[in-house]
């Protein structure tokens, strides 16, 4: 297991380099000029050219990228913001806790509701309860985050005045963003749990457990659920990564001071250093989560653990 973990950690390096190259290329060739954005429309061409020289924007693309990735890999330096002049790492780290908290609440809510709903739906296959839960799961998958967020604000903030429409400091402010972000993942987890439980239910050892006289609750918890959770854990890991990306829209809708909102504002200002740093942080977090999911497999399935002995 130690060798496997070390190998996966080393694989993070080429993955992050590849992500950085793609994002750097997109920001470099996107329309607009960061220097003109920083100086404003009234700036002269000489002022723009001078600022571009200071920022190194007149250098060839590969030289710019080489300089950037060298600073990231060798010096662990994500650069400085073109707008605020502050280190990108400081700009991101001050907002990253809110993003992680939002994604964590979203995936926690999704698991808290999605897994039990999937289990109940599988045990009551083709019943009215199964049909209703899967209908709402389909609705949850189909609803865009931004549209659902706007509906929640209109209902609970504007009409009923029960919850605040912005901020992320109190538990009242956290309810709507977490629900809007986690609804899609909740539906995916519920559907995957149902599918996995139905597949496990058809196995011989489940019939054997029932023939021994075990109650249905013991059969579900002791024999079925643990094996059914393996694909569900995969989905949860992937969904957490998607929630980090979905936080970009959610933070903008609910005015949450997180990395997602910072990246949206930076794209509008052509502050590509912030955008590149934010994407790298998201990619690193997603890779670490996937590594954690792979390690968790070994604890859920002894057959996987035996491969590394």
General form: globular
- What is the number of helices? 14
The whole-angstrom Rg is: 24 Å
Mean pLDDT: 83
* Amino-to-carboxy terminus distance: 8 Å
The proportion of strand residues reads: under 5%
Output the helix-strand order. HHHHHHHHHHHHHH
- Spans of at least 5 consecutive residues whose pLDDT stays below 50 are none
Task: Please tally the β strands and state the result.
Answer: 0
Biggest β-sheet description:
none
- Judged by helices, strands and strand pairing, the structural class is mainly alpha
Helicity range: over 70%
List keywords for this structure.
single chain; 309 residues; mainly alpha; 14 helices
Describe the structure.
The chain has helices at about 1-30, 35-40, 45-55, 60-75, 90-95, 95-125, 130-140, 145-160, 170-200, 205-210, 215-255, 260-270, 270-300, 300-305. With about 300 residues, it is mostly helical. Helix 6 (about 95-125) runs antiparallel to helix 7, helix 8 (about 145-160) crosses helix 9 and helix 8 (about 145-160) crosses helix 11.
How do you describe this structure in short?
With 309 residues, the chain is mainly α. 79% of the residues lie in helices and 0% in strands.
SSE layout and pairings?
Elements: H1 2-29, H2 34-39, H3 45-55, H4 61-75, H5 88-93, H6 96-123, H7 128-142, H8 145-159, H9 171-201, H10 204-211, H11 216-253, H12 259-268, H13 272-300, H14 302-306
Helix pairs in contact: 1-13, 6-7, 6-9, 6-11, 7-9, 8-9, 8-11, 9-11, 10-11, 11-12, 11-13, 12-13
